[in-house]
Specification:
Length: 317
């Protein structure tokens, strides 16, 4: 009886070991999966970021899926829970909110799923495996210097901010004001958020123009809002009088600079951020564990003098 029980126990043990080993090999054979969670696909810039991340993941041999959070942290939470439960092995992440997204990053960390932030950061020092971010502050310092020169150090202007929960919003604003505020004859008469949204920016500027019809310029925290602001100026008949400045390097704004409609933008490099995030995930799978907590990606001023060297989201080949 004892020998029979012992044989049964040994048989069961061998079976379980074989089954576990089979599952481990099966995981390796099938490859790993990468989730790409972005704040919104209602903005061409983020569509490009997500598509380039997915393309690089495919080049590296991984399956990927793009999740659209629609600028909603609750929906973002659903995406994280879905990705973790579905067995995704890494998350390339463009957060909706620097504070509100921390809980999702921590959930992934607890599940041992590495998170690589792209373009936007989360306010935690140890949640994400790495954060690859545009140098928004320095980029807007360059825009501000050009802004000061174009306006000859005097005039009235308004500022249209992005999402108030996104650190990029405030880094861009701070970089801009670190220069412009030194010129007392340049006066900001209004500042309001339009959530990085083109239609909202158009509505915001229409309202601002009613209160301040004599402004000389508009500084926008991204290119989608710059295009919305320009639409508002066209509708009001002031497109030739009021100067618009953006930030992103989106195709429509690059073309608008070429046609002397918008004055300048800050060229970000979403492909660099997407490529790096996917590359880091690949290196993580292969055993690397030390990554830069924050990796800045330079932003370049694009204006009517140098726009011929640039295309959508980067330099021309």
């Amino acid at each position: 009886m004892y020998r029979k029980k012992l044989k049964s126990f040994l048989f069961l043990s061998v079976f379980l070991i074989a089954l576990f080993g089979c599952k481990t090999r099966q995981k390796t054979d099938e490859g790993r999966k990468i989730a790409i969670v972005v704040s919104t696909l209602n903005n061409p810039w983020f569509v490009f970021l997500a598509d380039r991340a997915a393309a690089r993941a495919k080049e590296l041999g991984y399956e990927s899926k793009i999740f659209d959070s629609q600028n909603n942290t609750a929906l973002e939470t659903d995406h994280f829970e879905n990705a973790i439960a579905s067995g995704f092995d890494a998350i390339l992440f463009n957060p909706t909110d620097a504070d509100g997204s921390v809980v999702n990053v921590n959930k992934a960390k607890a599940a041992e799923v590495p998170v690589f932030c792209m373009d936007r950061e989360v306010n935690t020092t140890d949640g994400a495996t790495s954060q690859i971010l545009s140098d928004s502050y320095s980029g807007c310092v360059s825009i501000a210097r050009y802004f000061v020169d174009i306006l000859h150090k005097k005039g009235k202007y308004v500022e249209i901010l992005g999402l108030v929960g996104d650190n990029n919003t405030w880094m861009r604003s701070k970089g801009f004001h670190s220069v412009v505020d030194y010129y007392p004859n340049l006066k900001m008469v209004a500042q309001q958020s339009a959530d990085f949204d083109r239609n909202k920016a158009m509505e915001v500027l229409e309202s601002m123009l009613q209160a301040h019809p004599d402004i000389d310029a508009v500084f926008c925290g991204n290119d989608a809002m710059a295009m919305g602001a320009y639409q508002a100026l066209v509708a009001s008949g002031k497109a030739d009088q009021i100067k618009v400045f953006g930030f992103d390097g989106a195709q429509d704004v690059v073309e608008s600079i070429q046609h002397q409609k918008i004055l300048a933008t800050g060229m970000q490099y979403p492909e660099v951020m997407a490529y790096t995030a996917a590359q880091f995930a690949d290196e993580y799978f292969k055993g690397r564990r030390e990554f830069p907590r924050k990796m800045p990606v330079a932003v370049e001023l694009v204006n009517q003098k140098n726009v011929s060297h640039y295309g959508a989201y980067g330099k021309q080949d």
